[in-house]
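Dissemination and training. As part of the outreach component of the grant, students in the summer workshop were shown how a complex can be specified as a set of sequence lines and then modelled as a single object. The example used during the hands-on session is reproduced here so that future cohorts can follow it. Participants entered these lines:
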Amino acid sequence: EAGVAQSPRYKIIEKRQSVAFWCNPISGHATLYWYQQILGQGPKLLIQFQNNGVVDDSQLPKDRFSAERLKGVDSTLKIQPAKLEDSAVYLCASSPGPGRDTQYFGPGTRLTVL
Amino acid sequence: GENVEQHPSTLSVQEGDSAVIKCTYSDSASNYFPWYKQELGKGPQLIIDIRSNVGEKKDQRIAVTLNKTAKHFSLHITETQPEDSAVYFCAASIRQAGTALIFGKGTTLSVSS
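and obtained this result:
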């Protein structure tokens, strides 16, 4: 069974530029999460999708971050404009759905904002 | 808000020794507690999890204990090996299971041979 796929693996941008990350969850998984992991810390939830609907985006900085999962499968996370403090690893995770909540993580995208 | 505290932040042991990592959580509604291992440049990998209706769970050299009254849970690794060296994160479900996780800050485990 293929795991969670993410791309790109690395991205370097200047502050105020925009960037997008892509995630393809494990086939059949209804729930998809985006986490932000700053160096030396644990992952922090940004947004949770159930199929193509948002379950929790309370910690998403909506003035600059947006995410979508239009067809209930893959997802895109965008930052526009980026700030220096957005430098982090962005992790995507998926789980089968309600009642089956084990989360499986992708390798992450390491973002550096200069 | 919800919080998970994890200790110690670093842990060094000799090969063959045991390692224990402890976490406390704040939200009494949390009922799912996974542990993840993260190696450099990789995403977190689930190693064991426990739900609130169970006090202890074991999988070969790894065990987790949960004390819901005290709101703390622990990871125990026995007979440590150099390949156990990594960063370990505890996590608790935000509110009930099926929701996202809140993570501790991680423990860097170093196993020397």
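Chain B has a mean pLDDT of 93. Students were then asked to discuss how this feature might be tested experimentally.
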